[in-house]
């Protein structure tokens, strides 16, 4: 990058440039929708199983299920577990090494609470010492059924007592966990509706109703309509759903703020059935992906890849096929598939980005300031957050992007997409599988 003395446009210049039609594209070029599979680590039993799941998801290497699909699909971790499942402190050195490698590579990107056997702040300090000491960065939190360290009171009737953000509670930790780097939290909001923060809105019934399962679908539609109505009437469990948003600021009980996000899952039997290795095939079926592309929205899919006891392979056969189809959608430039952390960071940057542009002798100059997040002050902007940001410009070869006055030299210049407009992108880097 080269330091330049770029001047921001004056208000009159910006107004004069109105006709240049520089706009922020909703998704990284060339995609028209975005999806992350957000898998809770529950019931994953061995390091070998975890590694084989990720070799299939993240590489194109030969696996016990054929060649992998090579997608950026992440996973989660907890530290204390009393059921002998994969967790940092209750498994051996091999599991610990694998967890650390996958966190450092970006493939474990969610802290799935501190586990159902974490009862005290001292235990949490010990876990954070590990994460700090090994330079392991996680910025997404997901509540785990039965974990006392869970955040927010909103869904306590489902999770049991959630004490992680209650000052004075034995397991209070929100202060040190947010200071460590957690920015985004799933505290229980879920929907069967395909496509959050969509470009186009579709009738609820069209994406939830499945004519192959008429009775079950009608029940699902009714449940979603009820949640939507309650959200409109101010029930804070369902406000995000009623507004079709992927994310919203959430005030914790200690006064701190995170960005809460909603997860999607759907299945004719039940949502919990959809959130298994086998059920994922329905949740991300070709039908669901077609709806996602039609509404041009986001989807963070609720899953448990380790709930696979009824499967012949570590990933159910029908889900292997669904993941291969998802990989084709990604390769064709239709659906951006990435980890939960990368997807949320991207969406957050789009929401809060402060940018402007001016035209100088036929050349477009775009100026980006750090995302000005009104909900959480003091979050440092990281270059990673800005990856994938795409601006429509009149001429891709006559455009420059400046980040805090510094020109980004490695700009990706894109031909016209389906809208007929050319664009420039801050390039996306690929995660690198450690094995
Ligand atoms: Zn869980």
Structure, described:
The chain has two domains: 2-29 and 352-425, no CATH class; 34-332. It is 31% helix and 19% strand. The protein has 435 residues and is an alpha/beta fold. It is built from 15 helices and 22 strands. Strand 11 (247-251) and strand 12 form a beta hairpin. The strands form six sheets. The protein has a six-stranded mixed β-sheet with strand order 6-7-8-9-12-11. It is globular and about 65 Å long. It has helices spanning 11-16, 47-58, 93-105, 121-133, 156-159, 174-180, 204-208, 214-232, 239-242, 271-274, 280-283, 286-295, 317-331, 340-352, 383-386, and strands at residues 2-3, 23-24, 33-39, 62-63, 66-67, 75-77, 108-111, 140-142, 184-186, 190-191, 247-251, 257-261, 263-264, 298-303, 335-337, 354-360, 363-369, 390-393, 399-403, 406-407, 412-414, 422-425. Bound molecules: zinc ion. Zinc ion binds at residues 40, 42, 112, 144-145.
Summarize, please.
Helix content is 31%, strand content 19%. The chain starts with a strand and ends in a 10-residue tail after the last strand.
Write the layout of secondary structure elements.
Blueprint: E1 2-3, H1 11-16, E2 23-24, E3 33-39, H2 47-58, E4 62-63, E5 66-67, E6 75-77, H3 93-105, E7 108-111, H4 121-133, E8 140-142, H5 156-159, H6 174-180, E9 184-186, E10 190-191, H7 204-208, H8 214-232, H9 239-242, E11 247-251, E12 257-261, E13 263-264, H10 271-274, H11 280-283, H12 286-295, E14 298-303, H13 317-331, E15 335-337, H14 340-352, E16 354-360, E17 363-369, H15 383-386, E18 390-393, E19 399-403, E20 406-407, E21 412-414, E22 422-425
Parallel strand pairs: 3-14, 3-15, 6-7, 7-8, 8-9, 9-12, 10-13, 17-19
Antiparallel strand pairs: 1-20, 2-18, 4-5, 11-12, 16-17, 18-22, 19-20, 21-22
The structure holds zinc ion.
